[in-house]
Amino acid sequence: MKIVLCKGQFLGPISGADETLVSYATQLKLAGHSVSVLLLYEHSPQDCYYIRLREAQVPVYSVASNSVRTSLAAGRKIARGLLRALPSSQFLVRRHAQRIATSMASRQYDNCYEFLKRSGANVAHVITPDPAAMVMISAAYAAGIPVLYQELGTPFHPPDYESYYEQFTTVLPLCTEIAALSPLLASHCRAKLAHAKQLSVLPILSEASKDGLGRVLDPATVTIGFAARVEHLKGPLVLLESFATAIARHPGLRLKIAGAGSLEQKFIARARELGVLPHCELVGVYRTTEERHAFMSSIDIFALPSLTEGTPNSIAEAMLHGLPVVASAVGGIPDIVSQEAGILVPPGDIEALSEALLQLALDHELRVRMGHIARQRYAELFSPEVVLPLLLNTYKRVAANGNGHVASSAETSCAHPWARELVCG
């Protein structure tokens, strides 16, 4: 079977969608399967996700020229500047940016179609609901290749992006199957994506570090870790306010931030105002599995107070490293963080988040117990050993159904806990 994983472009260095695509591709290649990655827009040679694919010997192709990528990047920079300068005009800015992105992507349809037609692929696996994905879905369908579209978040959410979904859903009838990241997210997709022919659950896959999972910590402190974009929807300022409240009752607390984003300077300024900046450390972005392991090995609790989510890669990574998790009860997070593996709080609730952090910080045995169960849940839900068979069975079913055949029950049987959610359409 020949698989082409399709995405408009790499959006790193911090991108859950890029991480998901790269993890699937590298594990498929490692298992001996034929897999390649197709981007609509050319990648940078220094892109961290491209480097990982190259090291795994996964071929990466693009259909648009480098000049198109440069123009697109310049347009995004202008749009971000306008949104910062004129936040009240964000609806108009996003609408205009959407029209430009749709026009640029549409010009690549013929190149995309010709590439896919020549590829001989059995399945095109497309992710991210944007104009580039629309073109890739349409081109694959026209080329006679069954399409699996994977929704990595909650459809029509956040509200600022509803117009993108309104446009994107017009191509969903061309897809043989749509996959969500968890059962909860699948229920959202069933309610919102009326044109879905078949709906399945296909979780993220998180790779173990080559260095193992040993952790060496300072017993005098309890370090809370956050790894995500330092942007409003990930809740870094909510975490900072909660940390400031908690450290007043537990002076040994530390906060460690891995990531980058538009709120970095605001985060630092607010930490200084709250008097907790000396207890905070911003370490930048980790780009490799080894750097990720080093970060996760340096913390005691992982916190992600997002306002909206799918099933975050960083939570799966923390669970892999045996860390208890404190997170918002949004998106697919309640599917992955059980009450035995962590504590869920309402999004934006500073007091509840502070209490959850303190509960874990003050109870070493609770941290160890929850961390152990979190590690078990990682193995059951996100390890290559359980996700890869589910991924391959999904491809087999899509390839068969897309060619007018119905996959047998044997093709879809799988030991993954969410396998029974496999076809829900």
Describe what this molecule looks like in 3D.
With 425 residues, this protein is an alpha/beta fold. The chain has 2 domains: 2-205 and 385-421, Rossmann fold; 222-381, Rossmann fold (3-Layer(aba) Sandwich). 46% of the residues lie in helices and 14% in strands. The chain has 17 helices and 13 strands. The strands form 2 sheets. The chain has a 7-stranded parallel β-sheet with strand order 3-2-1-4-5-6-7, with helices on both faces. A 6-stranded parallel β-sheet has the order 10-9-8-11-12-13, with helices on both faces. β1 (2-7), α1 and β2 (34-39) form a beta-alpha-beta unit. α5 crosses α6 (131-142). The radius of gyration is 21 Å and the shape is globular. The model has no long low-confidence stretch (mean pLDDT 88).
Helix content: 40-55%
Distance between the termini: 25 Å
Count the E strands.
13
Major beta sheet summary: 7 strands, parallel
Question: How would you state the average pLDDT, rounded?
Answer: 88
CATH architecture classification name of the largest domain: 3-Layer(aba) Sandwich
Bin the strand percentage.
Answer: 5-15%
* Gyration radius, in Å: 21 Å
| CATH domain fold name of the largest domain | Rossmann fold
Strand order of the largest sheet: 3-2-1-4-5-6-7
Order of helices and strands: EHEHEHHHEHEHEHEEHEHEHEHEHEHHHH
> What overall form do the CA principal axes indicate?
globular
Structural class call reads alpha/beta
